[in-house]
Amino acid sequence: MSGCTALDDVVIVGAGVVGLFAALHLKRLGVGQVRVFEARSVGAGASGRSGALIRSNCETEVESLLAMRSLQVFREWRDAIGGENGFVASGLLELAGGRSAAAMRARVARQRAWGVGVELISPEEAATLCSGLSTDGVTSAAFEAAGGYCEPAKALGSLYRATIAAGVNFRFGVGVLGLDVCAGICRGVRTSEGLHKCGSALLVPGAWANSLVEPICHGLGLTPHLSRLAVFAPGEIDSCGASAAVLDHILEAWFRPSSDGGIMVGAEIGGQTGVDPDEFGDEGPSGLARAYAELLARRFRASRWSPCRGVWQGMYMRTPDGLPVVGALPGCQGVYLAGGDNGGAFKLAPALGEAIAELIVLGESRTINISMLSAERLMDRESQRA
To answer: What angle do CA 43, 45, 49 make, to 5 degrees?
Structure first.
């Protein structure tokens, strides 16, 4: 499919972190008019509720390449975007034991071959990188010194202001109901306030993708998933703000300092798959805090009765193979999708937004080859099952 010209009008559905980066790069590539339709507000979906761990040690080469390019943007945010993103170069620590240890060591070997700056370290070395950390059950560890975390609200705010300065137009409170398609060509989007014509449409609606995608492209297997986070204030741990972020493959959880001196905990406890994103609010159930406090107490020398400062939840899309879907949608010329992030969109967003913008304008992604992320791979997978 050929790319559009710089005179075309591109509509983006969704003002999450990937949508904002795509909008910025479309303007930088010379697209005349870029409009973003968002039913709620900037980062109202998963982006604003992300733990925002910034790392490059991903499962596949294409994700690691995207993450490395994105990491550079997060670290050089003031020059690349402007403003602040709250990035803390704390380093990213991975912990493994039992069967997860062998898998992690093999994965680290692959990542180093891809150019990721990660190295294996001993459990004793890991204990020095994170205040109050317990290494019980840990037999292998890895550390990515360049990684860390950022504050989603700061990043989204400054990114939004950068897109406004670049000339992107936003329509908030306007829901996109579907696409206007004629003879297999996208003519525009149908919204809550009427039809809006456009040259191309980029769908970045997060957990709300299926209502827009399924009428024109079946078999992707995108499934909404509810994930929850909690923040605690363990008085037993000093200077946790200087600690590394932690991916714990033993407990299947992650931990990172919060900006107010607490510890943020993320896990799949209480998560639900296949739910309606409109049925859940922002705040998680209070009873779930105790389960997350137990995880905190198992990995840190903190009481399981540490005060909980809040539990909240967000929805993201899962794909059958764990990779995002980024590219043109088959069967409808002029429609593109960036979705199915499996909970990892924030760390990939700068490079994903750049790649999809190049695909729309230039007909190909020239910074990083994202062809393996195309929708066709999932459709082929579904047809093979049938």
So the answer is: 75
What whole-number distance in Å separates Cα of residue 71 and Cα of residue 73?
5
Contacts of residues 249-252 at CB distance under 8 Å and 24 or more positions apart, as own/partner, are 249/94, 249/95, 249/96, 249/97, 249/100, 249/103, 249/104, 250/95, 250/96, 250/97, 250/98, 250/100, 250/137, 250/138, 251/295, 251/298, 251/299
In Å, how far from its chain's centre is CA 139? 29
Please give the Cα distance from 9 to 76 (Å, whole number).
30
What's the token pair of residue 290? 């105790």
> For residue 26, what pLDDT band results from cuts at 50, 70 and 90?
very high
Q: What is the pTM of this model?
A: 0.94
What is the topology classification, in CATH, of domain 9-48+153-219+321-385? Answer: FAD/NAD(P)-binding domain (3.50.50)
pLDDT at 283: 72
Rounded average pLDDT over 193-199: 94
pLDDT for 352:
97
Helix spans in 149-287 (H): 152-166, 210-213
Task: Report pLDDT digits (tens) over 177-193.
Answer: 999 999 999 999 999 99
pLDDT at res. 8: 81
Tell me, yes or no, if the two domains 9-48+153-219+321-385 and 92-145+223-318 fold the same way.
no
Name the packing angle between helices 61-75 and 345-362 (round to 10°). 100
56 near 144, Cβ under 8 Å?
Answer: yes
- In angstroms, rounded to a whole number, what is the distance separating the alpha carbons of residues 351 and 71? 9
CATH H superfamily, domain 92-145+223-318? D-Amino Acid Oxidase, subunit A, domain 2 (3.30.9.10)
